[in-house]
Amino acid sequence: MKLYNSYSQKIEELKPIKENHISMYVCGPTVYNYPHIGNARPIVVFDTLKKALEVQGYDVTFVSNYTDVDDKIINTAIENNVSEKEITDKYIKAYNEVRLGLHADLPDVSPRVTETMDKIIDFIAKLIEKGAAYQVDGDVYFRIESDPTYGELSHQNMEDLVVGARIDENSKKENPLDFTLWKATDKGIQWDSPWSKGRPGWHTECVVMIQDVFKTDLIDIHGGGLDLKFPHHENEMAQCQACNHTKLANTWVHNGMINIDGTKMSKSLGNVRWAKDLIAQFGGNVVRWVMISVQYRALMNLSDEVFDAAIKELNKIQNAYKQACLQLELENVTQNDELEPGLWNTFIDALNDDLNTPNAITTILDTVKQINQNVRKRPLDTQLLMKLVNTLEKELYVLGIEFDRLKMTQEDKDMYMNWRKAVKEKNYEVADQYRTTLQEKGII
Predict the structure, then answer these.
(1) What is the pLDDT of residue 364?
(2) Distance between CA atoms of 125 and 213, rounded to whole angstroms?
(3) Which DSSP string do the residues of 11-39 spell out, in sequence order?
(4) Structure confidence by residue, pLDDT tens digits, 124-134
(5) Percent of the chain beyond pLDDT 90?
(6) Separation of alpha carbons 166 and 179, rounded Å
(7) Closest-CA residue to 237 (of 2, 5, 3)
(8) Rounded CA gap, 176 and 171, in Å?
(9) Residue 180's CB: how many other CB atoms inside 10 A?
(10) Which residues pair with 60 in a beta bridge?
(11) Distance (Å) of CA 14 to CA 20, 251, 300
């Protein structure tokens, strides 16, 4: 597997820290609202990456967090006159429903900030002890100048960042780029700390969760949307460099953003599309197909035309799959796990090339073409057809597309043969009766 590493700006071979095991962490959402379609893209991207690694024999530990304390959460709770936990529990449930609706596996571990608070406070204290952080009037800030590598992930020069930073004359910071690790506050949910009653800054959470879950300060893959590369991931890496002298992850993977009809999606423009609404309208297969039809690092544009094209392609695949399964059922072929090696290897090669899902889709369409050709051949090569069906099923599994495999009882098979006989004998009234029942059963 080769992936584009945002840190090195190169496509590099993925070399696991532990043999045959991949540790992967993806930044999760701040849960104060329903997930929009932009939140859904990393769900699909990193679930596809996980499955692509697993079918090649890797044991993947996949972790994704929930930020369940934040000003937006507190404000939403105040507006609705409920506790922060009621807000976060509601939207964590909604986020998981979207994840499952997109046929993505739930993470192996989903840590919450509110359940990691003692470790977060201990980590901040350690940064202060090392001189990488300082406290002023109950607030704690990370000292950017303590990390000489700052800016290496986002490939920005610190001097340029300082020039571009907003200068607040009343700021307590030593440097305008210094960021908050702990915020003193009397608003909303708070915790006691050595510095004040308050809550943590956003950038510290993931570092602590990674170290807590994986029991290490260096993992294989850290992922998230491109918008997180700076400042969030840059600030995560800076803390890990200051505290543990590692860059937190060997490979940093960022998925591209989403436009709606050629325009950036934003609340101010009123063009935000909620993931749950798109899944309800089109179904998980279609939304996921749209997501994987573009290479994960590229900008994605959603439009009616894109969804229409996805529906047509999926119908083509499903029809071929159904016809092949029908023939195998009628021939009473014993199911096995054999694959068509040429197609499967081409499919995996595409995914191993920086998760090139568009090329993987091309292989799926080639598989469908071969299925259609073989279904029409007489005599029917049932063993080859079985291999093609198995290959298609496994390809679709990796890309997160789910179709039910056709299963027929002996009664179903007899009915199908009687329908074909009635058609051949031009007994259309009887044929229509059989066809109606077969259609109701989803057989034709």
Answers:
(1) 98
(2) 20
(3) EEE---SBTTEEEEEE---B-SS--BHHH
(4) 999 999 999 99
(5) 93
(6) 13
(7) 5
(8) 8
(9) 19
(10) 22
(11) 11, 8, 25
Q: What are phi and psi of 179, to 5 degrees?
A: -120, 160
Place of tokens 């199908």: 416
User: DSSP secondary structure string, 183-231?
Assistant: EE-SSSS-EE-SS-EEEE-HHHHHHHHHHHHHSSSEEEEEEEEGGGIII
- Other CB atoms closer than 10 Å to residue 444's CB: what's the count? 15
Tens of pLDDT along 148-168?
Answer: 999 999 998 877 776 555 555
**What beta strand segments (E) does 226-375 contain?**
248-255, 258-260, 263-264, 300-302
User: For residue 232, what is the DSSP state?
Assistant: I
Please state, in angstroms and rounded to a whole number, the distance separating the CA atoms of residues 211 and 19.
Answer: 20
For residue 427, what are the contacts with CB-CB under 8 A and spacing of at least 6? none
For 11, the token pair is 């496509």
Mean pLDDT of the chain: 95
Give the span between the Cα atoms of 179 and 345, in whole angstroms: 47
Separation CA 408–CA 418 (nearest Å): 15
Burial of 281-300, coded b for 16+ CB within 10 Å and e otherwise, reads ebbbbbbbbbbbebbbbeeb
Give 338-385 pLDDT, tens digit per residue. Answer: 999 999 999 999 999 999 999 999 999 999 999 999 999 989 999 999
Nearest to 44 by CA among 102, 108, 106, 110: 102
Tell me: pLDDT of 98 over 70. Answer: yes
Residue 358 tokens read as: 């568009």
